[in-house]
Amino acid sequence: MPSIEPNHDFLGLIGIEFEEGLRLYGVTPRFWYQRYSPEAQHLEESSVRILRQKEEANFGDGEDALKEYQQVKSNIERIKVNYTEQDLLEKEDQETNSGLQEEAEPEFNYKSEEVLTSLFNLCEFYRKNQKEDLLVDSEYGSNSLPLFQYEHFVKKLEEHTRELRRTYRSVIEPVGAVRGKITTRGMMMMVARPSPRIECEFETFDIQAPLYRVMMTTLDVIRSSHLPKGFKFLDERFQQICKRGANLRMKMMEIPSFPLASALRECGKLRRRLPRMFKQFEDIVPLAEQILRAESEKQKEEESEKDSPWWHITAPSSKLWELLLEKSLENTPNYGVEKQEPLDGPWKGSGQKNIDLCITPTSTGNNGVFLVDAKYAKKPPNDVPSSVYQYQQFFYAIAWAAKGPPPSAMALAYPAPNTKEEELIPISYDLVGNISTLINKVEIPFKLWTIRFPQPEDLRTSDLSAYLSSTSKRLEYLMAENHF
Measured between alpha carbons, how far is 140 from 84 in angstroms, rounded to an integer? Predict the structure, then answer.
């Protein structure tokens, strides 16, 4: 019996068009307390199957089940390529921790639309809160549904509409076909002195700059895009963005577009050397290039279509967990997060590493720093972090102390599926035996934290304000334990 275990570091939505129609797959976080049956369910004009990270789902018997299994497995592998930092979720220890790891029974009678909407809002939170320089990256490749990308491009272009139209001029002249709007005089002359030419008032575009034509080509792609029908909430959101793109294009209908290949070439030139007068479009050009490249690849795939058409809206679980903690800290007036440069790891093949959260107090009398590493993994059942994690924290402490005072404290932050696990007393370790002689520090508290992961009831909207507020209080409590 074919089965899938989503053990890759992403969550979100996947849509695959089979011969019988669209099937939506929701990959839910492993830290949702509620579990859902993986059996296929009907939803509007499509069907839904809910999968869970690190949990095997059987697809049934028969040729159709085998075909579905092969398609889902292939697409998961293609999505995985986008998230190179941590491909696989870590294996679990087989032990249990005083019964707290006990799983809830899968629910069969649930509203699949609510599950999909919660996943969408979680992905939207991640995309909306990414740093500007990370918004255009490989995570938009491999059939990623460009909903957030289109929305970001249209929003940016709407903000710069005045600059985009500054080289227009208004013209009134007789024309052979109605252009713009007919003037009052033109309407009168149509009755008093009929003529094949009608006086109209319209705007003309004087400067044929490649940048303008690239923007219009991108708008043409957006307004002509469509999403296979199946999930009303997603359909409406996508069509709303495409409509905004079409309205922008209509406002600047006098600007001609490039062929797709020419627009991509011009994008490359503009990205390398953007004229000074167009500096305000500097952050829009990479977005346009990404949209155009995705459209070009899509057209090539359609010409040589082998697999069923598909798309996905996903977010990397590990980065999402780190972002949730960072945004929660922004709600605390007493602490701030310090930006860090990447560190070159001492171990072979490790590449560059970042200390996830360097928390500093806002009060002037405290110059300490609390180093927190966000771990999207279950807290070890024996309350002893793995040797890999211990070596990593040891390196972070040494690297931090090499450039100044050593850290005041350190912690590993694990997600918890419910408040029962979250409220466990934090476990404390002391790194003094290993590093005190190296960095001349008497004691560096090393904590294991558990913090509740957002559940479906926290994800009614994508701003997560209530969840972030409660998590900020939890973080303040944990740091106050060290008198930090």
Answer: 13
Asked, for residue 114, whether it belongs to a domain, the answer is: no
For the chain, how many helices (H) and strands (E)?
14, 18
How far apart CA 354 and CA 392 sit, in angstroms, is 11
Question: Hey, which residues does 410 pair with through a beta bridge?
Answer: 371, 446
Q: Is residue 232 part of a domain?
A: no
| pLDDT at residue 375, rounded to an integer | 92
Kindly state whether residue 190 falls inside one of the protein's structural domains.
Answer: yes
- pLDDT given for residue 353 in this prediction: 72
When mean pLDDT is compared across 19-28, 53-62, 139-148, the lowest value belongs to 139-148
Distance (Å, whole) CA 77 – CA 201: 56
Task: Tell me how many domains the chain contains.
Answer: 2
Q: E strand or H helix at 479, and its extent?
A: helix 465-480
In a domain, 140, yes or no: no
The SS3 call for residue 22 is strand
**How far is 287 from 264, CA to CA, in rounded Å?**
12
Nearest Cα to 235, choosing from 464, 13, 462? 13
Rounded Cα gap, residues 27 and 36, in angstroms:
11
The DSSP symbol for 14 reads E
Report the distance separating Cα 448 and Cα 433, nearest Å. 18
Max avg pLDDT among 102-106, 260-264, 475-479: 260-264
Phi/psi region, residue 215 (left: phi>0; alpha: psi -120 to 50; beta: rest), is alpha
Which residues fall within 8 angstroms of residue 445, CB to CB, at 6 or more apart?
409, 410, 428, 429, 430, 482
pLDDT tens per residue, range 139-159: 455 577 888 889 989 999 998
The reported pTM is 0.81
Expressed as residue numbers, the domain containing 338 is 318-480
Among 186, 206, 226, identify where a domain stops: 206
80-89, 308-317, 414-423: range with highest mean pLDDT: 308-317
pLDDT-derived band at 95 (thresholds 50, 70, 90) equals: very low
Contact, 23 vs 16, CB < 8 A? yes
Nearest to 86 by CA among 7, 27, 146, 5: 7
Which of 158, 187, 206 is the last residue in one of the domains?
Answer: 206
**For residues 473 and 26, what is the distance between their CA atoms, to the nearest angstrom?**
31
In what helix (H) or strand (E) does residue 335 lie, and over which residues does it extend? strand 335-338
Smallest Cα–Cα separation from 146: which of 292, 7, 44, 1? 292
For the chain, what percentages of helix, strand and coil (3-state, to nearest 5) are there? Answer: 40, 20, 40
pLDDT at residue 307 in the model: 63
